[in-house]
Amino acid sequence: MYVRHLQVTDFRSWAQADLAFEPGPSVLVGANGQGKTNLVEAIGYVATLSSHRVATDAPLIRQGAQRAVVRTAVVNEGRELLVELEITAGKANRARINRAQMPRPREVLGIIRTVLFAPEDLALVRGDPGERRRFMDDALVTRMPRMAGVRADYEKVLRQRGALLKSAGGRRGSSSADLSTLEVWDGHLAKHGAALLGARLDLVADLGPRLTAAYAGVAPESRPATIKYKSSLGDALPPEFGVPDGKRADLELLEVLLLQRLSEMRQQELDRGVCLVGPHRDELELVLGDHPAKGYASHGESWSFALALRLASCEVLRADGIEPVLILDDVFAELDRRRRTCLAEMAVGAEQVFVTAAVEEDVPRELTGAKYRVAGGEITRAE
Amino acid sequence: MYEGPVQDLIDELGRLPGIGPKSAQRIAFHLLSTEAADIGRLQDALQKVKEGVVFCEICGNVSEQAKCRICTDPRRDISLICVVEEPKDVLAIERTREFRGRYHVLGGALDPLSGVGPEQLRIRQLLTRIGTTEDGIEVKEVIIATDPNTEGEATATYLVRMLRDFPGLSVTRLASGLPMGGDLEFADELTLGRALSGRRSV
Predict the structure, then answer these.
(1) Pair B119, B45 in one domain
(2) CATH of the domain at B97
């Protein structure tokens, strides 16, 4: 797939921008603060309905404007689709596909699929477990757009159940009515939780060997890198799930295990008034040699690990038969020559690559293609 | 900002669901230019909605008398109860003209975030209703027609658990699936998945 056209209105620094693209590499060059990243961020937003830089939509709207609009024309196996998103802060966004209004913005997921590399990726290694959960869940949605619904359902049940735990725990000696409705929410948490957990385990099983290989390519002199899914189920999680050459996760079994674990933790949950069981408490462990990467890995190793995670998720998509659009946002400045080459070699094979760079010399020679200069609110195609 | 009463009216109208500041303004100025008799009727209607409307003592639907029109209709099947969240859901099902039983309006769905538990819903009344016979006829089937969202599903599960203890009572849930006249291509994955798992042999 590739993005043939991008048009933004009141998005970040851009009052209006209009760009045509071709398959292959497109390099956006310009000094800092000219809005290069804002353009690729818009493409990423259409792909994931979230920004890689901020958690809320408000900063995406140009100051003083009411709403931002992103229009993209995407060509997928010769068929072109026009995707339009209207982003309004504090309100539901609206989406149109080929000018037809969609009931939910979620419908546009899967039309463009991207893998985005950015300086923010360092947080995958150094940040909280939440960063790594988000990495897994974003990758899941890119892989199977259906998962966006599962994720939303799970979060909704989680919030409801959390509210119930808080109110039930607050009143000493909770009434039987509280407990019986808690069991109802347990059932729903286990059902949606199992769907999310199972998909994550399968993803980790597919990512594992590709990550180890990618890391060895990026940093051959370093220790071997591996990943491991650590579940709130603890030892109850069957060891053959979530590992390469293991079994595909059995959702019914996971649901039963989650329910068991919930009943074991019942008192503790009531005492603390928080939800202690479920994929929202899980962690993707990044291991370097024998040590966890967080806290032990050097700056360079952390970078390599983050890069390898993205490379591996790209490989997983390709193995599924999806050719994602790659977005390399300001990454080359941070990488040494070997890692640049590694990334460039992988990116050359992609149908379309967007590269942003402040200094043109940072972009590896393999990725020369259409070049755009971004300066003073203008974009010009350079020959 | 307008002055005094006009702005008060706009503010009050703007508090209503589905009415934004611009619509509130338009309605306010429309009312300002309306004849006094029409305003009087509106005033009466507003007054009566709080004083004159009662909730049916059997089903909990909005009603004029102690028992609503549906519950007093002798042609209705007493052995069949359809459980819905809101009075407006009764209207929706009535429009189908398919259902000949009676209703039970819960007054919402389980929603711990808004502090709604089983005690806030008319679940106890439902259980009493099922437990007692009326004119010697007992309730044979309960159709659960709560909304197919997180809260509605949780309410349905809760009801199923509570109704399990009644011997001989059959409990059913509305089917969920594809909209009529729709295109398979445009169905979202969740709906299509549900329709697949809930398929029936023909």
Answers:
(1) no
(2) 3.40.1360.10
Sequence-ordered alpha helix ranges (H) in chain A: 36-48, 122-126, 129-143, 147-170, 176-218, 251-264, 266-272, 293-296, 299-319, 337-348
CB–CB contact B150 A161 (8 Å): no
Domain count, chain B: 2
Tokens linked to A200: 């994550």
Residue A253 binned pLDDT confidence (cut-offs 50, 70, 90): very high
Please calculate the CA angle A114-A118-A120 and round it to the nearest 5 degrees.
Answer: 120
Average pLDDT of span A363-368: 85
Give the total number of structural domains in chain A.
1
Q: Is residue A258 part of a domain?
A: no
pTM of the model: 0.84
Burial code (b: 16+ CB inside 10 Å, e: under 16) for B41-75 equals eeeeeeeeeeeeeebbebbbbbbeeebbebbeeee
Cβ atoms B198, B177 nearer than 8 A: yes
Identity of the residue in B113, B118, B193 whose CB atom sits nearest the CB atom of A181: B118
Residue B30 lies in a domain: yes
Q: Report the run of H or E that residue B87 belongs to, with start and end.
A: helix B87-96
B-interface mutation test, from A144, A178, A184, most B Cβ less than 10 A away: A184
Same domain membership, residue B76 and residue B163: yes
Identify whether residues B46 and B126 lie together within a single domain: no
Coil, strand or helix at A181 = helix
Measured CA distances, A293 to A127, A297, A302, A313 (Å): 11, 5, 7, 18
Residue A340 belongs to some domain of the structure = yes
H-helix or E-strand spanning residue A353: strand A352-357
Q: Taking an 8 Å Cβ-Cβ cutoff, which residues of chain A contact chain B?
A: 103-104, 106-107, 145-146, 149, 153, 156-157, 159-161, 163-164, 167, 177-178, 180-181, 183-185, 187-188
| SS3 state at B85 | coil
Spatial distance between the Cα atoms of A312 and A322, rounded to a whole number of angstroms? 14
Domain that holds residue B46: 4-52
What is the pLDDT, as a whole number, of residue A234?
A: 86
B98 and B161 co-located in one domain: yes
Segment A157-206, tens digit of pLDDT: 999 999 888 887 665 555 666 677 888 999 999 999 999 999 999 999 99
B77 within 8 A of B103, measured Cβ to Cβ: no
Report the distance separating Cα B124 and Cα B60, nearest Å. Answer: 12
Q: Which amino acid is at A324?
A: P
* Amino acid letter, A65: A
Does residue B178 lie in a domain region?
no
Burial of residue A124, with CB atoms counted within 10 A of its CB: 0-12 exposed, 13-18 middle, 19 or more buried: buried
